[in-house]
Amino acid sequence: MALKVVALAGGVGGAKLAFGLAQILPADDLSIIVNTGDDFWLYGLRICPDLDTIVYTLGGLVDSVNGWGIADDTTNALEALRRYGEETWFRLGDRDLATHLLRTQWWRDGERLTEITRRLASKLGVNCHILPMSDAPVATMVDTIEHGELDFQTYFVRLRWQPTVRRLRLSGIENSAMTPETEKALEDADVILIGPSNPWLSIEPILSVPGFREALMARDVPRVAISPIVGGTAIKGPAAKLMQELGYETSAQAVAAYYGNVINGFVYDVQDAALPVPVAHATTLNTIMTANTDRIFLAENVMNWIQTWS
Question: How much is the pTM?
Fold first, then answer.
């Protein structure tokens, strides 16, 4: 009997695990619940970076160098905007624009983000369930020492996550809600995985949707997080820097402690095998995913390990 798996994901690390899972599981048995706290408006278009990274990765279109965007895309539209004096600090590829144009058109027609994402993903041959964490807009806001409160993309892309973070705020989270699709995915799940995504920027927004954390913790199934911190640093992105600024030790152990009783299982890298981890079930694996074979290997090994639980 196939296991139904739900993965919480955001960013490049989450997309890599999603790719591995998609190679070993039937499409209908895999649901990926994706962070939308990074979503924003630009040039009148609704941009959903984490959703697009997941879809492009699973659809075989992603730029493998950056881990986001479409491979070999051009930027003629951005160059034209630059001639008009625009500061084109957020890269939008020409083929990538097609995604944003259709999403915005369907959004303005009144379609839910969940249905929009399903339509876009299916057109790209992605048949597992890619689910936004909520259909309502939520915006991650970053309070910094140098610039005060910034919207996420200004902090992350324009300022290259260099400002010092004091705290994070989820604007609109109180007006968000679980969708029928995310509720059903959690209810049906045999395994719940938290990808090696940034716990604060990618996973916390998902867990903060009203009712989501409680619905997840109510499931008496393996709930396993995979650490994004290896050897005291992040494989990619600001996770380690952010942890220091928010007062956490930069270690896999600190990630496990942060998730607390949300999880009952934890996977961390073999480099950190000496670290004691306060989780009922814990194991070390090679979690660094450089090639597609690494992503499949990790997904297989996580699933095989979970099935050894007594």
Answer: 0.97
